[in-house]
Amino acid sequence: MSATPAGPLPDARPSDLTWTHVIYALHAVGVGFGIATSAFIVTSFLFGLPSIVAVIMNYVKRGEVRGTWLESHFRWQIRTFWFALLWIFLAFLVSVPLMLVLVGFVTLWVAIVVIGLWVLYRVARGWLRLSARQPMLA
């Protein structure tokens, strides 16, 4: 739900705001592992324990933020995870057959880097907007 011209969204409870920060922090840890280790950002984000715990927390807590401005952040976080998973699956689906002619190694590497940068952007943008107490608009 996004803010409408008719008025702002209802304010959220402080505990829900804290939970949303914790969830972004878990996602950021997953991204950080991908940057700091030999793992890629997107693989660390998708298959690392911090992000998996964060997505589970999103689903468990999203009923509590429904109707508040935090609902848009929960939707943003959930969509970031599932779209990254979908795109990495499609990248493998396209690249693996192309590996027979060696092009697939390049296409897969490029896809992993681009999706990882997209995940990094989504986590950073969402957390910055949350820190400014603004809903996600897109």
Q: Explain this structure to me?
A:
The structure is a single chain. The protein is mainly alpha-helical and 138 residues long. It has one domain. The chain is built from 5 helices and no strands. It has helices at residues 14-36, 41-47, 49-65, 70-98, 103-131. Helix 1 crosses helix 2, helix 1 (14-36) packs antiparallel against helix 5 (103-131) and helix 3 runs antiparallel to helix 4 (70-98). The longest helix has 29 residues, at 70-98. It is elongated. The termini are close together. The model is unreliable at 1-7 (pLDDT under 50).
Along the chain, the helix and strand elements come as HHHHH
The general outline is: elongated
Oligomerization status of the protein chains: single chain
Give the low-confidence spans.
Answer: 1-7
The value of Rg in angstroms is 17 Å
Largest sheet: none
The secondary structure category is mainly alpha
- Proportion in helices: over 70%
How many helices does DSSP assign?
A: 5
- Rounded average pLDDT: 90
Total separate domains: 1
Q: Count all strands and give the number.
A: 0
Strand-residue proportion: under 5%
- Cα(first) to Cα(last) distance is 10 Å
Topology, element by element:
Elements: H1 14-36, H2 41-47, H3 49-65, H4 70-98, H5 103-131
Helix pairs in contact: 1-2, 1-3, 1-4, 1-5, 2-3, 2-5, 3-4, 4-5
Which characteristics define this entry?
138 residues; mainly alpha; 5 helices; disordered N terminus
Brief characterization of the structure:
The protein has helices at residues 14-36, 41-47, 49-65, 70-98, 103-131. By secondary structure, the chain is mainly α.
